[in-house]
Amino acid sequence: MSLLSLALSLVFLVLSFLAPNTLAAFLGLGALGAAAFARLEPRVRTLNLTLLTLAFTLFLRNSGNTLGLIGLVGILVALTTLPRIPRWIRVVLGLAILLLSVPIAGFANTFIFELGIQIGIYAAMALGLNVVVGMAGLLDLGYAAFFAVGAYTWAIFGSPQAGKFLQGNFPLPGEYMYLFMFIAVVTTAITGLLIGLPALRLRGDYLAIVTLGLGEVVRILANNLDHPINITNGPQGITPVGRPPIDWFRSLMGTLGVRLDETTDYQLFFYLLVLVMIGLVVLANVNLANSRFGRAWVAIREDEIAAQAMGIPLLPTKLIAFMTGAAFSGVMGVIYAAQRTFVSPSPSPSWPPSPSWPW
Amino acid sequence: MRKIGFLVAGVAALGLALAQSNVIKIATMSPLSGPQAALGEQIKLGAELAIEEAKPRFRQLGFELQLVPYDDQANPDVGVANANRMINDPDILGLVGTLNSGVAIPASEVLARVNLVMVSPANTNPVVTDRKLPNVNRIVGRDDVQGPAAAEFVYNDLKLRRVFVIHDKTAYGQGLAEEFRKRFEALGGRAVAFIGTEEQSNFVPIINQIRAQNPQLIYFGGIYSQIGPFTKQLRERGLRMPLMSGDGLDSSEFERLAGSQNAKGAYYTTVAGPVSAFPQAKALAERFKAKYGKDIEGFGIYAYDAARVILAALENAIKANGGKKPTRAQVAQEVRKVKLKGITGTIEFDDKGDIKKAKYFVMQVAGTGNWADNKLIKVIEVAAPQK
Amino acid sequence: MRVLEVQSVTKRFGGLVAVNQVSLEVNEGEIFSVIGPNGAGKTTFFNLLTGIYTPDEGRILFLGRDITGTTPDKAAKLGIGRTFQNIRLFGAMTVLENILVGRHIHTRVPYLHALLRTPLARKEEKKALEEALSLLEYVGLLHRKDELARNLPYGEQRKLEIARALALKPKLLLLDEPAAGMNPKETEALQEFILKIRSEMGLTILLIEHDMRLVMRISDRIAVLDYGSKIAEGKPEEVRKNPRVIEAYLGRGAAGGAA
Amino acid sequence: MSLLELRNVHTYYGHIHALKGISLTVEEGEIVTLIGSNGAGKTTTLRTISGLVKPRQGEVLFQGRPIHRLPAHEIVALGVGHVPEGRRIFPRLTVEENLEIGAYLENDRKVIQERKEQVYQLFPRLYERRQQKGGTLSGGEQQMLAIGRALMQNPRILLMDEPSMGLAPVLVDFIFEIIQKLNREGRTILLVEQNARLALQIAHRGYVLATGEIILFGPAKELAENPEVQKAYLGEG
Amino acid sequence: MLEQILVLLPQVLFDGFILGFIYAMIALGYTMVYGVLELINFAHSEIFMIGAVAGVEVFRYLAPLIPNGYLLLAVAVVVGAAVAGLTAILVERMAYRPLRRRGTTNRLVPLVTAIGVSFFLQDLVRLIEGLWHNEFFLRMRTIEDLEGAFTLFGGAIFIQTKSVIVIVVSVLMLWGLTYLVNRTKLGMAIRAVAQDLSTASLMGINPDQIISRTFLIGGALGGVAGVLFALIYTTINPYVGFLPGIKAFTAAVLGGIGNIPGAMLGGLVLGQLENFFGTYLPILTAGNFGTEYKDVVAFLILIFILLFRPQGLLGQMVKEKV
């Protein structure tokens, strides 16, 4: 079993040089499956995963075939979930995938950066959702609305759009994006407050539908607030949205020996930015989970009445969870707007609602 | 045994890849699935036909032509993602598309980063070229001419004064409807209402408003998929006033969804004229029908021409480059210099990428069940407004 | 000192008068029991005290302060801890975490400190943890601290629920049928436990219980509810002899006269 | 052949080993009682018999036929009636509907009517309240309804789980009278009871459970006199 | 302005009823499934869509065979109900039952599954219709018999024969459902399972069977609503279920989820609100806020009502036992 699995990985490694095509990618995914699900000795499994990381990286570098990225994500999942892999291997391999493999692949095909950024944004949002749904047990289906609020917050001021209804010199310079990441935290938290204040008084299932409805309301507003005052530019969307200047980043990468061109510089920058954000969101998650807030949320999820009897006020505590989740979503929205340089409401009221369904 | 099989396959694939380094790819991007697929497919097939016909010429120059179709689902997000994919394939040197201005605007920002040229057979929103991106061109007219042209037709030719304006809350539909209203009111007419709706099924509230206002004509800036059922419900509820729309209505699907009886008599302007509007289009229509088994419609013809623009620019660039594969920037520059006698007329670009003289057609639905029977009422040829 | 003073409190549900003009006073350090047949309004009475229901009439004073119509969380913050008839633990949390939730109001960490896990947050967390552990040791559940609450045997769940209420550091503890489902031996242990926490933690205890032997043995005073009204109050021996109580509660002997 | 027999039954709730090899028998016409402290596995035993939980090991035989793999509703059809712990009345069905749903498997309207009348005879109180919603009844009335509902099935054996729970003493007496009356009419009863003294008074035989195991069994009289049982479950007085 | 409103009012109310009845029928599917399983069956909007598609196909293929429009419609309603009902059963069997069997306690799991099923059904129908007719938009065939129209009150209300049919059919369906739930043995069993599933099984009721039948009934009603929707609004597509779906669910919540008369009332109220604001918003706000805000208004009213009456219009306050 072990030998077969190792052999599969080795074959894939060879193929990643000789014939890095779709067929080979499927073989690689098969090898990954074998490494993850077959009964293997822990040491063999670890070796196997390391080999596959190398193989998928080379495969991506040589082909740019996006299937390889699925392999890397798969390895990440395997590293975080499979038992009995030494901790340092998990960390080293995980970091290697995130900081080396994906960028290497991205230089072969910048669409991989695009995908990586997408996956990263979704991952960060999902982690934010963990506070709301996972800990506090609030069925929030309007989560995407906060993402949109965040995205619009920066898009309006980071483009000439704000000039259409405000005095002043717009667009704001790109550096302001960092400032707006904080402002978006505030605006989305306030939006969360406004939505949560009525919605969180309701029972769980009602909350689901009310948030779904309110998510739709935000979309309708984005689509229609081009008159009487033009705030969102309606269905036309807003473009181009400013990005921060990254000369420092280019020279930094230059000193590291990484040469960037116009198709890769922002992509790598945003990719790393999203990674940093994920790290921060994870940290916040862990901190909150081990605090009185995290415990209060879980207590509310388990039994509202008993939680109240412990002195936990329901509405404020739920609101904090709701606003925390909203803020995470909002920050990612700012990054999304800057990375895409374009925001718009979804073109038609189809399922799933744009810009991104919370799942 | 199997390993050897893989090895052989691998070596073969490698060889193929090496042999293909002289490949030039031209992409199309249009909705190939979803509500607007009928229009999007015309764009893909029109471009494909042009490329098929040019293949022998390019083979003589030492290049293998390939078409890469992208489906944008009429969704800006998907369009941007596609654009990101495209700029990664160094063999892609030009793009025919898109259908929707809403997709073209953000996607072209991405393409502009690498100067990948696009020639649109359908984008009519002024913003598309008004940003003055060096890689963005179109061979059709603009909504800020199409809308006013419709307004003038309603005011001067039909001599109607009270109009009910509806749009579909998209970049295209709303833009067109606004341009229409502006000119119509400037001429002295009155827009009794200006309403946006994303509704796909229940048009009853709007029909009730129309019943209350009793306008002389309804102008609907939008796509056939919405105007079709709207028209059907309108007529079923006994309202008979004339209807007018823009090029979004220019599809036989409109007649199917509204029903021939209800569709009959509806006016529309289009920037992509029908086969009957162009003397040379007949032969093209026959080739198209022979190859794909269906009729070519306006956007198919324009996509054919748009592809030919890119092909001509490519040929010039290859020549200028001494027979070697040109860069994207070179192709983009050559596109602006093209002067081509196309099926749809003479194609020349101004410094924004607009066609120098665009044609606008006023049409009326015949309601015979055959879209080609639609009556060409008027052709207007106007230069793009210079702001 | 008077810990609790209830003044003619009434609660109606639709046409039903669940609690009817009930008044009573509980003094510091007392164990005060409320007994009565099922449906007499005992649990409703508790729910009025802890703010789950708002009385339609009357006032409730806690430590001299009017708490009529307060909310459950505010009642808890003021120092009223309680258990529930049908054990309401946080099943998916560990025993230790249940106690830590009980410490919620005493862990003063502002949100941003918790988010950033500042030194202040660490310090408070550490303190909370130590206190929770010592409480668990006190009630004898330390060896179970990492088990999920829902996996505990019944008796220990009852105990944990009381411990969780104690973590609030309440002045008044409301126990709703703590002996339900216990055998005589367990009930006896519970009796010892209640007496112990009363004296060692300086608590005042309000008790609802069906087990007459337990009630008679540990109560300082007893109030009897029947159909929502208080029909008797006094020391155990007085109540035991009260003819109205005997009639309403113990029945006239045989069956036959159903309900 | 016993009417009901459990052979070495092991039942789990998740990871908790709730029944650790229970074996017992109930003969036709008996009242058998299961006593023991809370968490001993009494309720789980009944739930295992009526199929609400599945044993991981062992057999349940009803009239000699293994039933432990059948779903609950099929076990009911064989003639096992269960009055669940906490009564579990359907709160938004009327008293009459609660009774009718008890006879869900019976299609003959006449038979249903007859049984309903029998139940009303046994509990006149229910007749008075027949149009009332189950949820509005008092605790004692709900217990009567739960018993009546099970009787509508005309079961061969009646499993009763803590019928005295939460009832005032006067009602407990009444319910126990009813149980004895039913037994005199020929019904077999398996009774789980917290109130061991009372249960052993009316039962023929008894089993004592502790932490998922049977630690003692025998005729009820003997058990009631057993000093160990007295000390542990009957209190010293 | 007031005059403008009054002139249209009878018409607006009438049209609101039609929409309201359709919402009511869809809402019943949500409310019944919720009553029994406490599950928001998001896939119900696709069950509705499948019913509509079935109706369109019946009209497409059987119109030449069945000369009488009313008979054809009856066939379409029956087929739509059957197809939608069976789909609902299938969805329950394949998606929800396995989860139930595994005893998943997390309420989010079935919810997310429902959303997944929803996607799956949309794309499945899109694929099938794409391959079969190469159509994305499906048009209900026009049948001459059903196209009549007349006016009432001197032209104040324009009424199509179709709308009358919609109202008659939906009233019949709603009455039938009420009878079924309150007066039949199956109805009693459904209510019993809804209140206490495991005790119901102690009565000899097979819960799985009752759940299946609940899905069948709810699905069939949704299917009928779909056919009527296609009849009255003429064009449908594979994604047409989403908006009516969430609105009907909103209606169910508005009326008090789990409560059958509540779902009907909620549907009617929501239909009226939507039509009312869709028509009058531009008039009321002098054109600043148009028809596009009709859903915003509907949702805001929902929230408003729930704030003051959290159990919904007819729902009973289920006070948790403390």
From TrEMBL, chain B:
- Which biological process terms from the Gene Ontology are attached to this UniProt entry? amino acid transport
Q: State the similarity comment.
A: Belongs to the leucine-binding protein family.
**Highest taxon in the source lineage:** Bacteria
Task: Name it.
Answer: Branched-chain amino acid ABC transporter substrate-binding protein
Q: Which UniProt keywords apply?
A: Amino-acid transport, Signal, Transport
For the Leucine-binding protein domain, which residue ranges apply?
Answer: 24-368
What is the phylogenetic placement of the source species in the record? Bacteria, Thermotogati, Deinococcota, Deinococci, Thermales
UniProtKB/TrEMBL annotation, chain C:
Q: Which CDD domains match?
A: ABC_Mj1267_LivG_branched (cd03219)
What range(s) does the ABC transporter domain occupy?
4-252
| Domain of life where this protein originates | Bacteria
Family annotation (InterPro entries): AAA+_ATPase, ABC_AA/LPS_Transport, ABC_transporter-like_ATP-bd, BCA_ABC_TP_C, P-loop_NTPase
Gene3D superfamilies, per database record: P-loop containing nucleotide triphosphate hydrolases
Q: What is the organism of origin for this protein?
A: Thermus parvatiensis
Q: PROSITE patterns, from UniProt?
A: ABC_TRANSPORTER_2
Q: PANTHER family in the record, alphabetically?
A: AMINO ACID ABC TRANSPORTER ATP-BINDING PROTEIN (PTHR45772:SF7), CONSERVED COMPONENT OF ABC TRANSPORTER FOR NATURAL AMINO ACIDS-RELATED (PTHR45772)
Q: Which GO terms describe its molecular function?
A: ATP binding; ATP hydrolysis activity; L-isoleucine transmembrane transporter activity; L-phenylalanine transmembrane transporter activity; L-valine transmembrane transporter activity
Q: Mention any one GO cellular component term assigned to this protein in its UniProt record.
A: plasma membrane
Q: What is this protein called?
A: ABC transporter ATP-binding protein
- What single Pfam family name could you report for this chain, choosing any that match? ABC_tran
Biological process terms from the Gene Ontology for this record are: D-alanine transmembrane transport; L-alanine transport; L-isoleucine import across plasma membrane; L-valine import across plasma membrane
Query: What keyword terms does UniProt attach to this protein?
Result: ATP-binding, Nucleotide-binding, Transport
TrEMBL record, chain D:
Fetch the InterPro entries from UniProt. Answer: AAA+_ATPase, ABC_branched_ATPase_LivF/BraG, ABC_transporter-like_ATP-bd, ABC_transporter-like_CS, BCAA_Transport_ATP-bd_LivF, P-loop_NTPase
The superkingdom of the source organism is Bacteria
- Name the species this protein comes from: Thermus parvatiensis
State the protein's name: ABC transporter ATP-binding protein
Q: Which family does it belong to?
A: Belongs to the ABC transporter superfamily.
Q: Where is the ABC transporter domain?
A: 4-236
Entry keyword annotation includes Transmembrane:
no
Write the record's keywords in alphabetical order, separated by commas.
Amino-acid transport, ATP-binding, Nucleotide-binding, Transport
Query: One short Pfam family name for this protein?
Result: ABC_tran
Mention one GO biological process in which this protein takes part, according to its record. L-amino acid transport
**Can you name one GO molecular function term for this protein?**
branched-chain amino acid transmembrane transporter activity
UniProtKB/TrEMBL annotation, chain E:
Which GO cellular component terms are attached? plasma membrane
Could you list this entry's UniProt keywords, alphabetically sorted: Amino-acid transport, Cell inner membrane, Cell membrane, Membrane, Transmembrane, Transmembrane helix, Transport
Q: Which CDD domains match?
A: TM_PBP1_LivH_like (cd06582)
Q: What's a BP term from Gene Ontology annotated to this protein? A: L-isoleucine import across plasma membrane
Membrane-spanning parts:
12-35, 47-63, 69-96, 108-128, 148-181, 215-236, 248-270, 291-308
Q: Give a GO molecular function annotation for the protein.
A: L-leucine transmembrane transporter activity
- Similarity comment: Belongs to the binding-protein-dependent transport system permease family. LivHM subfamily.
* Name listed for the protein in its UniProt record: ABC transporter permease
